[in-house]
Amino acid sequence: xxxxxxxxxxxxxxxxxxxxxxxxxxxxxxxxxxxxxxxxxxxxxxxxxxxxxxxxxxxxxxxxxxxxxxxxxxxxxxxxxxxxxxxxxxxxxxxxxxxxxxxxxxxxxxxxxxxxxxxxxxxxxxxxxxxxxxxxxxxxxxxxxxxxxxxxxxxxxxxxxxxxxxxxxxxxxxxxxxxxxxxxxxxxxxx
Length: 191
Hints:
Number of helices: 6
Shape: globular
Strand content: 15-25%
Distance between the termini: 33 Å
Number of strands: 7
Order of helices and strands: HEEHEHEHEHEEH
Structural class: alpha/beta
Number of domains: 1
Radius of gyration: 16 Å
């Protein structure tokens, strides 16, 4: 893929040190460890605040991941589109069917190492149902899902468990949602 904030020579180590310092100053813990040769779909939930994004950047920098994230195309407006892409963003036009699952699956076929971060709610607002694109990408590409989380009451964010889809969407979604049931977002009223 392309050079991002997570892979820029010279600058990334400096940003990593800053991220570690900022996390200490604000009192948040990054949970998890470095993953070598990653090929996975990373879901991040609960996604309830605009602060989830900078927190994700800090945690991912500290944990030494190179992440690409899916975001609505309206976030990639001029003159900030280049910056958003450097931050790892991949714009998604949600107004029409673009077969995003197949596009991301194709990227997994081309890339030796790839981590794609997807917020399953698809928005910061309260939703009744999660979008399941992350599940279908994981299943189609044959890569695991890594459960990433924010838990504001504990002031921690990070990586928990790997989950391999079984093909039973309803059962698997219940198991995934059970993990997140005890996690509190920054704005709990949006969870």
